[in-house]
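for the writeup, i need someone to sanity check this before i put it in the appendix. the sequnce is what the collaborator sent (i think, or maybe the updated version? ugh). structure was predicted straight from it, no edits. if anything looks off just tell me and ill rerun, i have time this weekend
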Amino acid sequence: MGEVCKVLIVDDEMLIRQGIINYIDWEQEGFQIVAEASNGKEALQMMAEFSPHIVITDIVMPIMDGIDLVREGKNAFPDIEFIVLSSFENFDYVRSTFQNGVADYILKPKLNGEELLGSLNKIVDRIPGLQHTAALIEPNRSVEEMLEHLILGYDSAVDKANLSGVFTNSQFALIEIHAKNVDQHKLKGLLEHLLPEGTAVFLAASSETDAKMLLNFSPHQFGDIKKAIANEAAKRNAVSWLVCEPFQAIDELKKVHDESLKKMEKYLFYLPDQTLFLYDELPAEKAKQANFDLNHFIELVKDRLFNPAFDYLKSHIEYLAGRYSNDSFEFKSFLGNIIFNSIVLLDSLKYDTQELERNKYSYFTNINEAENVKAAVDEFHRFLEEVRKIMMVHGGSDEQANNLDKILSYIEQHYTEPLRLSEIATHFHFNASYLSSYFSMHHKEGFSEYLNRIRIKKSMELLEHSPVTISNISGMVGYSDHSYYCKVFKRITGMSPGAYRKEYHADHENEAKGLAHLKK
């Protein structure tokens, strides 16, 4: 019998600890819960006493939280692996724990027996002592099992020696086939029928939704292999094919899997209707733009300028949906974070958020489990619709908010003219000193700074899309002094107008080259 994997559970809430204990049949699955702790300090003592292989810990706990536990625990017991439990709003904390060696994380809304067991088994495969004991009771492994061990990082000299006699050709390629209810054996048979004669096909790993196949072939065959897969991808709309770059040694399998294949897997979330992803012909992404300014969004909502706030939000979501190389979890976390902050913000503004509070975990769960970007965004829009209904019932469009909204619109329309705060206040029958304090309080900047920001934003658009000279642009956006315009532009953007135009066009030239290559 191999050694049982020992587990320590750490959470300050007894009910959550009991829930984790009851999720799975620990002994039957080869695990043993050796202890429970209610905070990080207790957990460190129990780690010294019971020597667990894996610690499952919450983030937020009294006395010592999960962040400090991971840091101090890894320092004192480097071989112990950690699984962190996190809610959406605490995920920024989880990012910092990864730097200290966390093996895995599970979002609390997604916590269930299957998710927990999958995480535990994934980690057990990386614990040397348990792997060696498992190897003792495991008879001769198949080629498929040895390939899966290589992908998981199980570096076995015996496996590599056995595999060296299996492959008769000098080139390899890893491909992944995505489909609902994958039948791995049918897909393997399909590939053997499709691909050029002499190409060997091996199942490297599989799940309910994908099968990873390793191809072994002669160098001159790769062009025909790509063509055969492309033809098949064009016929099968419910199946997506990912083709990695060819490599020459089986030792490179894990690197290709972890770098090339994982990169392409991210594209699947954003482009669910695309059926073929080739390592050297990936779709071009949207050009990088500024990060979402949460404070700006919050200030707009506080001022009850809901339409500009939601327009700003939707614009950024549309941008993120075109950044295909970003992890889907980052996209989902952004949506979850906005939901969380919006509910807190609306509550502080005295809106009735009871319905949103009741449904928020449903939004979190549905977004987290969304198979693609469209499903995630649809769920987010469902949340925004509920927000709009609450605002209408509450009467969020009061007269003063409407007037302030009109003032901001007026500035947007007349920014090219010499604008003075006193003249705007008179035009809208506002007290000038009140309007001045309004800008300082709600925008954390005075009227002049707000006007500058509008003008510079408009000039950036001209620099991007117009051949007009920079000196003319300064006049077009309301600056009579060109040198002052350059000074303001650099203060707000961090670069000169000329440098901004050059960088923007360089980015788009690279994007255009990518699109041209894609069309070939």
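The two ends are 58 Å apart (CA to CA). The chain is about 60% helix and 10% strand.
thx in advance!!
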